[in-house]
DNA sequence: TTAAAATTCACGGAAAACGGTGATAAATGG
DNA sequence: CCATTTATCACCGTTTTCCGTGAATTTTAA
């Protein structure tokens, strides 16, 4: 591990970006080698330079944080990645971990947590503070509310998206050129899987899991 | 106007708070007299101290920014208030203006915009940058998509919330102890007002406008 | 005070959703 | 290769939504 950690910061909120760089610049052993306002910009920077650590926001326009992390991991598995997010949804945290982040902290944590996260991650450990673990734990216990085991097929996702666009069963059948009965079967399976009581529940699920 | 502006900063994201104070502290004519993590804390500080300017986030847990601004305006109309938000929804901006903010900037604007906003507001002007005005303009032209003229009554909001909780018309009637027919009338009025095709559209509206 | 809006209620018919059951063929995965 | 999942389709009965129309009472605002 180097004496000085070279860091790339990615966040679409310019003000947050300036704030965080202002904090990091006060630390002698941390060097900001670049900033980017979105995943695409960050990938361009990574073509030229290789930081020790990437600090990235998760919710960003264009190429979002999770896709960005996946993209980075597709060509480099050694760069450390710390996700900073205001997203408290366990689905997002899980997705981030699956994508390959080394740590995940919330934006409402402070400077101390940030610096601790950087230190931990740069020395090879993972960093998921109590606050983040609590969210994951809750989601595990609340199996009824946000079950992670739900796996929807592509067809089901496709139909769910149309339902969310206020299409009726008949209209979906016409759109996909299949029987209305088939759509009804898919609809029933979707309700069973997501434990939704009706279409409203389905759409809320779709929104919650960022399907739409 | 004083030589030195006394500022109270309110934001639930500790990291953002530290970032912004770090930026403001570099300015000699700005003095941070307090920070708060939510509206309630901020109101407590205001019992003891009176800043020239309040910089507040809009989306906060507990007492949210808009309610906080309204609360402040109920006992003080002279304190300047600058809203900093990542919310790009025109509804939120309108609500903030209605609540009585003197300016509204987005979190993806930079230090320069922030300082300009502070200067403008403290000298008695309002500050709504191009980016914010663009959102408002778009929403006016996009009357079909996000009509600002929709005004739902309290009863309608109440019923919409229950709809969003997957309650059927009958269940809502039982909950509110009124006729099923009445609920149907409300439902029809809601659909007409929001131009929703069905319950799905209603719930999406509710989510979009942060009703639920 | 008077007009407008909000809240309440009713009836009837067409359309859609909901629930259960059963079944076939193709694709997938261990 | 074989079990599972996926995707397709059908039927039937009940419930709910959706749509139109009409109306009375209370509350609110000009």
UniProtKB/TrEMBL annotation, chains A, B:
- A Gene Ontology BP annotation from the UniProt entry: phosphorelay signal transduction system
Q: Which residues form the HTH luxR-type domain?
A: 145-210
InterPro entries according to UniProt: CheY-like_superfamily, NreC/VraR/RcsB-like_REC, Sig_transdc_resp-reg_C-effctor, Sig_transdc_resp-reg_receiver, Tscrpt_reg_LuxR_C, WalR-like, WH-like_DNA-bd_sf
Q: Which CDD domains match?
A: LuxR_C_like (cd06170), REC_NarL-like (cd17535)
Q: 4-aspartylphosphate: which positions carry it?
A: 57
For whether the record's keyword set contains Transcription, the answer is yes
Tell me one GO molecular function of this protein.
DNA binding
User: Start and end of every Response regulatory domain?
Assistant: 6-122
Superkingdom of origin? Bacteria
Q: Supply the alphabetized keyword list.
A: DNA-binding, Phosphoprotein, Transcription, Transcription regulation
What Gene3D superfamilies does the annotation carry?
A: 3.40.50.2300, Winged helix-like DNA-binding domain superfamily/Winged helix DNA-binding domain
Q: What is this protein called?
A: DNA-binding response regulator, NarL/FixJ family, contains REC and HTH domains
